[in-house]
Design brief:
The chain is of the alpha/beta class. Helices cover 30% and strands 26% of the residues. It contains eight helices and 14 strands. Strands 10-9-8-11-12-13-14 form a seven-stranded mixed beta sheet, sandwiched between helices. Strand 9 and strand 10 form a beta hairpin. The termini are close together. The structure holds ribose-5-phosphate. Ribose-5-phosphate (R5P) is lined by residues 94, 128, 172-173, 175-176, 208, 210, 228-236.
Length: 311
């Protein structure tokens, strides 16, 4: 039987996965010292076992990454047969290329670290750039929360009596088109649906600054559903939402997989004309990040499904 461990980043999600799989969460000990170092200890026999460890590397990314790496080392030293990293939110995935001369390609470094410490397989959700898969030399599964987000929104549209013929799926930037398409296919159950794309430009000299220049596609009189992988400052979504309203959209819903919120983002969304914000629990939600327009859907069943072959 697989041994399922949780790091400290999202214990609630790990507990849910263990409940869906009907297996106990394996015991471990994570200690943080006053000098900020962390110590990880596995408290179960894992010799010759397949082990999985759930740990999103969301804010604060670096301590969570170190903890994940130490889990792998602890499991290896305890002679686990196979070690799977389940990283629901893959921190640093946006630093996947040199956006400007002289920059580190941090996603590449993280992948190298995961492999060199000894992970045999890595799962994540809706990684920022699918092409990052090419960096891995161990098996990598990019799970998707788009189908569960689409199902939830379909139910919401029904309660609001909004027909699918009055819906346009919108990507808030050029890079997100494939993800929006994945969401749309799950929502409409076909390839052929209204898709619009906002043209976004980033100001690379200033963090969290972006501008929506134009919108391609038809949103007039429609309910626009903005789909993105990650939200941090909320700038990308709010700029695209304004453009949609300018181009005649009547209502705006949002589906975002990872809420990697900056401090102001929740109140910006709540106080905007966005009607409803659907997201997941790949990242744990802190109490001060909750807001009435938000609806959270758990990815636990998707993780459980991916782990079933190892039971
Ligand atoms: C970037 O291309 C991502 O897909 C998101 O659109 C972006 O990271 C969101 O960041 P923010 O909320 O700060 O605009």
């Amino acid at each position: 039987m697989i041994k399922l461990f949780s790091g400290t980043a999202n214990i609630k999600l790990a507990v849910q996965v263990s409940k869906v799989l009907n297996i106990p969460l394996s015991q471990s000990e994570v200690v943080r010292f006053e000098d900020s170092e962390v110590r990880v200890r596995v408290l179960e026999k894992v010799k010759d076992k397949t082990c999985a460890i759930i740990q999103p590397t969301s804010n604060p990314s670096d301590p969570r990454i170190m903890e994940l790496l130490f889990f792998c080392d602890a499991l290896k030293r305890s002679e686990a047969k196979k070690i799977i990293a389940i990283i629901p939110y893959f921190g640093y995935s946006r630093q996947n290329i040199q956006h400007r001369e002289g920059e580190a390609v941090s996603a590449h470094v993280i992948i190298n670290l995961l492999e060199s410490v000894g992970f045999d397989e890595v799962f994540t959700f809706d990684i920022h750039d699918e092409a990052s898969q090419g960096i891995f030399s161990v098996p990598f599964k990019n799970l998707s929360a788009m189908p569960i987000l689409a199902k939830e929104i379909k139910d919401y549209l029904k309660t609001q009596k909004i027909p699918l013929s009055k819906v346009t799926v919108v990507s808030p930037d050029q890079g997100g088109v494939e993800k929006a398409r994945l969401f749309g296919q799950a929502l409409f159950n076909k390839m052929d649906f209204h898709l619009a794309v906002a043209e976004k430009k980033r100001d690379l000299e200033h963090i969290h600054q972006s501008f929506a220049l134009d919108l391609f596609g038809d949103v007039k009189g429609k309910t626009a559903i903005l789909v993105d992988d990650i939200i941090t400052s909320g700038g990308t979504l709010l700029n695209a939402a304004h453009l949609c309203f300018d181009k005649g959209a009547k209502r705006i819903l949002v589906a975002v997989v990872h809420h990697d919120f900056s401090s102001q983002a929740p109140s910006k969304i709540q106080n905007s004309d966005i009607e409803k914000f659907f997201t997941t629990d790949t990242i744990p939600l802190k109490d001060y990040q909750k807001f009435p327009k938000m609806k959270k859907i758990s990815v636990a069943p998707v993780i459980a499904d991916a782990l079933k072959p190892y039971l």
